[in-house]
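Hi team,

As requested, here is the filled-out complex form for the 2-acetamido-2-deoxy-beta-D-glucopyranose run. I kept the field names the same as last time so the parser does not choke. Let me know if anything looks off before we queue the next batch.

— J.
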Amino acid sequence: MAEAAPFLLRLNNGVSSMICVLLLLPAFLRTAAASSSCRSYCGNMTVDYPFALRPGCGHGGFRELLYCINGVLMLHIASGSYRVLDIDYAYAGLTLHDPAMSDCYSLARSPDGLGNGFEVEAWRAAYLRPDPDNVFMLIGCRPDSPLFQGFPAPSRGGRRHLPCRNVSGMGCEEYYRCPAWDGEGQPRAGEAAYGSPVGPPQCCALEFGAIRAINVSKLRCEGYSSAYSLAPVRAAGPGAWAYGIRVAYSLPADQEGFCGACQATGGVCGYDQETNADLCLCGRFNSTSNCDSTAGGAGVSAAGIKLYFIFIILYL
Ligand SMILES: *[C@@H]1O[C@H](CO)[C@@H](O)[C@H](O)[C@H]1NC(C)=O
Ligand SMILES: *[C@@H]1O[C@H](CO)[C@@H](O)[C@H](O)[C@H]1NC(C)=O
Ligand SMILES: *[C@@H]1O[C@H](CO)[C@@H](O)[C@H](O)[C@H]1NC(C)=O
Ligand SMILES: *[C@@H]1O[C@H](CO)[C@@H](O)[C@H](O)[C@H]1NC(C)=O
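And here is what came back:
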C-alpha cells in the first residue's frame, strides 16, 4: 500500500501532464507562431492596435505615425511632431502636446507663426481628426488672414461671417483672462472685435471642422493655443482648461471588424507593407482574413497539424 501510492502519484502526474501537453499544444503552436506580438511600450505608455511602433504592425492608416524616442512617445504628421501625452483606447482618443503652443501662462508668438497647428496628410484624414470638443485659438492673425476673408454667406445685416466662436464653452473672451495676456493689450470687448472697424480680434477660437487644417503661418497668425474638455462638467475658467490637442482616431466602418476576427483566431493585427491592406499575422503565415482560414495558409496549417502529431508520438 505504502509503495503503491508514490507509483499511483507518479502515474497520475504523468497522465495529467500528458493531458496538459495535449490540451495546450495547439495553443502553444499558435502562440509560438504568432509570438511576434505587435504590442509595445514607450515610457509608461502601451502602444497597441491600431497603433504600433513597428512597420507591418497595427493598422495601415496609422503607419509611420508614432515613434518612441528615449522613452518619449512622439506623433509625426504633415504639420509637425507632437508629444503624445495619452492614448485613450476606451474612447479612441489621443492627447497631444506641441511645445510651441501658447497656454494660460505664456503666449508663444512670432511674426512668422509659431507652432505646429494641426494638419494631416490627405490620405490620413479619414483616421485622425481633432475632437469636436477641442478648441483651437489662433492668436495675432493679420487682417488679411484667410480666417477673416473667405467665409461668405453673411448671416445678417451684410456683416462678414467670421468662423470665430466658442467651442464647448471655451473661447477667446475667457482665454483673454489668462495671465498670459497681462500687458498684451488685446481688445477685450468681445463683440467690438467681430467685424468691427477696430480690426480683427487678437484671438479667434474655432473648431477644427470649420477649416479642416490649422496651419499657423498659412493663416497668417503669430501663434495658437488649443484646449479640450472631456468631462461633461465644464472646467471652471481658462486656468482650469486642459491645454493640448485632443484627437479622435477611427477606422472606416468596413475595416472595423477585421482585427477582432484576427485576434479571435490567435492572430496579431498588421498590414501589408506594400499594399497597406489589412493582414492577420499568424506567425508562420499571414492571412488576409484570419488564422483559421485556409486561404493562403493551407499548407502551413497542415504542417502545424503534422508537427502536433509528431510531438504526441515523441511524448508517448
Ligand atoms: C506616465 O507618467 C507621467 C509622469 O511621468 C504621468 O503624468 C502620466 O499620467 C503617466 N501615464 C500613464 C498612462 O500612466
Ligand atoms: C507577415 O507580414 C509581416 C508584416 O508585413 C511581415 O513582417 C512578415 O515577414 C510576414 N510573414 C510572412 C510569413 O510572410
Ligand atoms: C503651411 O503653410 C506654409 C505656408 O503656406 C506651407 O509652406 C506649409 O507647407 C504648410 N504646411 C502644411 C503641413 O501643409
Ligand atoms: C463665448 O462665451 C463667453 C463667456 O461665456 C461669452 O461672453 C461670449 O459672448 C461668447 N462668445 C461668442 C462668440 O459666442
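Two things worth flagging: The two ends are 28 Å apart (CA to CA). The pocket of 2-acetamido-2-deoxy-beta-D-glucopyranose (ligand 1) is lined by residues 44-45 (CB under 6 Å).

Thanks,
J.
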